[in-house]
Design a protein that fits this description.
104 residues, elongated, mainly alpha
């Protein structure tokens, strides 16, 4: 699992924030190119250390932004499901629903 994905789950933050922390960790550890498995473990620890070193308000803001994003995504799923249901109901309520019309 990529470091960013692990951070989003462990710290409950957005992927973009996890990417920022991972990039900072990579710079701090002087990792060039693709990291080895050992370097990935060290980067994960460093990224978590960087997160914890931030002021508590900043940590809370990151978590709140994650929650806001999750809420928006859930709202979008509900709207999409509602639109699909309305479209389906509209098709069922048409006079010739399910009937083929002969060519003219």
């Amino acid at each position: 699992m990529p470091i960013e994905a692990s951070l989003t789950k462990v710290l409950d933050i957005r992927f973009i924030d996890a990417r920022k922390l991972t990039s900072e960790a990579k710079l701090n550890l002087h990792v060039r190119g693709y990291p080895t498995a050992e370097q990935e473990r060290e980067m994960l620890k460093e990224a978590i250390r960087l997160f914890v070193a931030q002021p508590e308000q900043q940590q809370n803001d990151m978590r709140m932004q994650r929650q806001s994003l999750d809420n928006l995504l859930e709202d979008a799923r509900v709207v999409k499901a509602g639109n699909m249901k309305a479209k389906s109901n509209k098709q069922l309520n048409t006079p010739n629903a399910g009937k083929s019309t002969p060519p003219t």
